[in-house]
Structure formats: C-alpha cells, structure tokens
Design a protein that fits this description.
alpha/beta; Rossmann fold; 2 domains; globular
Length: 334
Amino acid sequence: MKILVIGSGSIGRRHVRNLKELFNKRGDGEVFVFDVNEDALEFAAQGLEVRTCNDLDKALAEADGVLVCTPNHLHASLALKAVQNDCHVLVEKPLAHSFEHVDELLAIAKQKNLTVTVGYMLRFYEPLLIVKRMLEEGRIGKVYGARIEFGSFLPSWRPTQDYRNNYGAIRAQGGGVILDVIHEINYARWLFGSVLELFCIAGKQSNLEMDTEDFAEITMRCENNVVVNMHFDYLQKDYSRSCKIIGEKGLVIWDFIGHKVKFYDNETGTWQITTNEKMDFNKTYVAEVNHFLDCVSGAAKPLVSGEEAKEDLKVALAALESAEKKQVVRFHKS
C-alpha cells in the first residue's frame, strides 16, 4: 500500500510521522510526499526521511491513498484529482472552502467505490466518545441545549511562521475561524442531529492583520428542538475548548484541558468526573490515519463520509452568509 501526503506543513508532517510508525508496525506500506515548495520537500526527505516527488501526476499514478494537507482553498480540487486517478482520499478539514468541485468529487468517488473522508480527529477522541455514549444511554435524559466553545490565539499557532502568512488569516485561501473550527460543527451535528436553522454574528474584532473573521457566535436549532450556541475565536491566548450539554436529568461537560468529562446527576446532586491529564492527543491522529488505511485496504467503511463533511460545509457557509446578511438561515421546514 502506498500513501501519498500532499503538503508537508505542520499537519502533513504529523501524518507522515504517524504513517511511518503505523507502517513499521503493520509492515504493509510506504508513505511518500508531494509539495510544490522545494524547501518543504527537502525537509520531508531529510527531516522526515521519506521519499519525495515533485510531479503530482506521477505521484498519484502510484498512490493507493492520498492525504490532502494543503491550505483550504486547494482541498476539493486536489481531492478531485486524486479520485480521478483512482485514489482513496482523506482531506484535512474542511472538505472545501466552497461548493466548487464537491459534488463532482463525491459522485466520482461513489461511482468508483472510493473512500472520501475528512480529518475530523475529534471523532476518534475518547472523551468525546464518552460524551456520545452518555447521550445515547440517556444519562441526562432529554437534551435541551448546549454551549460549545473554541478559542486560541492565531499568532501563537505556529511560532516559526508569521501568522499573516497562515491560511487562517487569508480569505482567498479559505481562512477564517468558522471554516477553521469546523471540527466543532461536525461534532455538534454528530451529537445533536441535523441543523434546522441558524443565526450568526461574526467579524473581525481585533487588530490582527488579516482579512478573515476572528470572532463568531453561532446559534443553531437542531433536531428535537435542541438549541446549540457555539463561540469561536482566534483571540484567546489561553487555549479554550469545551462543550456543556444541558438535559432534563443533569449536565455533561467536556473540557479539552485535562481531557475531562464531568457528569452532574440532578437526582443525587453529585458529580462524576473522568479525567486523563497525561493523555497523548496524537493518538487520535494515529487512530484517524489507521482507520483510513483500513478503508483503503477495504477492511472498513469511513467513519466520516464525504457526504457528512459536505453537510458540515453547508452549515459553515450558511453561518458566514447569516453574518453577512444579518439573517436567519433555515435548512428545513420546522
């Protein structure tokens, strides 16, 4: 099995390292890298010690599976090129920054029975899997609503890179905090069902030199009248990522800090707390790419389909539309 990683930035490098480790254990494949940047290719060859290729067509011709790890605006076109060359594809989130190429990509993949999946590593993250099981078991009864938060200071993300050159700060590259934090949109839909309507206030609140939104508040009504409020920002210097779910029988709170899940039981008035401060978060990425390898080999079906990722994109783009027009966006009749 040969897996091509397109793009050797920070996430591409992480995937290369994890794939090398997995292939050493599995003994069934090779990872190699394509990048348009010669310095990035040299680092992959020397620093990551993998084979590199500067001809994408030749690379795709020998690949069984492809990981697309480029700026957002290139995701869909590169994924499309991959399936046209009979490759299974894992696209880093989001699936795309617009709907261009998306339907064609999914149609060709379906016709050829190829996997298209998206890099939502939180779907392999044990604390959120615990939350999902608790909801399915009815631990908090009927779910009334939830508050989801993500906050992180964009200039601190990659200390060796000027944040102004980060795709997140560049609208033409599909940047902005809403598309960047589409992980949260995906797991909200996973936990609470389809989005029926939403309203968003978003924009640039700071003095950061960027032409994308750095702050967003999204209120959604999901299935069963569950109201979900999401806060995203590029501004908090103290990393924040959490979810609080309110139900008729109690509360569930997940906090990324400490990898903690807290359950409050209304009947007993007590908290049950699960925490794993020593958890290696990279294991979620390992599980993600290992699952992709199983999809490529035919041993598994994708946990997150391309169609699901398209629905996440619809929600993200609807939020941007709502913020621009200052209007509620409705997806289905209530």
